[in-house]
Amino acid sequence: MVKEVITAKCEQDFIIESVKADKRIDGRELNESRVMHITFGKTRGCVLCTLGNTRVLSQVSCEMSMPKAAHPTEGSIHINVELSPMASPVFEAGRSSDLGIELTRVLEKCIRDSHCVDLEALCIVAGEKVWSLRVDVHVMNHDGNLAECAAISAVSSLHHFRRPEVTVAGADVTVHSVEEHDPIPLSLHHIPVCVTFALFNSGQQVIADPTEAEELASEGRVVVGVNAHQEICMMHISGCTPLQKEQVQRFVELAVNRAKYVTESIKTNLQHDEQNRSSKNLVGFAKDLQTDKILAVQIRPQRVFVPPPQVSTEETVSTDKEVEMTDEISPPEKEVKVLLYGPKTAGIGEGGASQWETVDLSIEDNITTSVEKNIDLSYDDESEEEVVTLGAEDLQIESRESDKNDKAKQRLSRGWYAKDAFFGGW
């Protein structure tokens, strides 16, 4: 049985009242979307898209297969959405949910049914062999608006993917490796984008890019799939709120503006990635790990041997008697080691061992200190306090004679803990 999301009634009421006052809990405007980031992996077709706290990772792969009998000159594309417990505690591994099925249908309508990918360009031999594309969408963190984040990640991975070069000689089909021939990019006609809206107050108030809490408090959702050319690719409505014609037109206008911005962002990120790959710079997730912050990737220090300076200086010290002093500085016997820990960070020498809170044990383990039993104790009858005076001659060092001295030896020689935690004791 699929787990259900449990939310507090007071939290839902707070979100509804905030939307009625034209405010949102994260400070955004009603039509404002969260910050979007697109990161490309080192391998082709791997894209991580973040929309606020929502994270979706997509990977595209291909293989040769038989075409369908109805379309012998067209390839195929399959979309698989995985909702793992890592994204949200309500998801269960190996079990499909209503949200997963809904998200898969939305992506298929937006990408495959809108003919985003040129399927005829995937044909190798008509009626015999075609390329079959597979888009694996992994939801890494669920914080609302999975449709838009997953669509951006899937479309970006299709643009970033490269298929192998193929040579056909009669009935022989040869697939070349990357070392032999450069891979070929896919042919895409347009970039469809899914834009999500949440409905409140019987559809009278609408917010864009809702979070998970706002989706649970809303009366329904509308997902509009459009591209930058103002073409509607799909529309998905969930909930029981009726919509007017004017509201649908308003949704399309807002979705087109959002699609233009997302399309430009995807093209810009693709150009930057191509420039980094052509110049052999760091690409993929490894580039994002190179930061100068604390607790970032540790850079191993590099040892640089600097030759000792050969300096001879003459210092003139002026005193009351005007005495001249001349000193010659002899070079050090050992070479100076300069350690480079990172950008603009260096150190001279490795330093010694840490002396932080160390215990100085000057007495050997086989020797203990004891106090003689015949200690001179002086008592004052008029005072209730006990005064004990110990002199230097009262402390003697002797070898172990009894079990009591052995326990005293353990306490003094081992510091603040007993040598035998079970039988030594205190």
UniProtKB/TrEMBL annotation:
Keywords: Cytoplasm, Nucleus, RNA-binding. It comes from the Eukaryota. It is found in: Cytoplasm; Nucleus. It holds the Pfam family RNase_PH. CDD domains: RNase_PH_RRP45. Residues 32-164, 190-257 form the Exoribonuclease phosphorolytic domain. Transmembrane segments: none annotated. Its main location: cytoplasm. Residues 309-329 are annotated as: Disordered. Belongs to the RNase PH family. PANTHER family: EXOSOME COMPLEX COMPONENT RRP45, EXOSOME COMPLEX EXONUCLEASE RIBOSOMAL RNA PROCESSING PROTEIN. This is Exosome complex component RRP45. It comes from Limulus polyphemus.
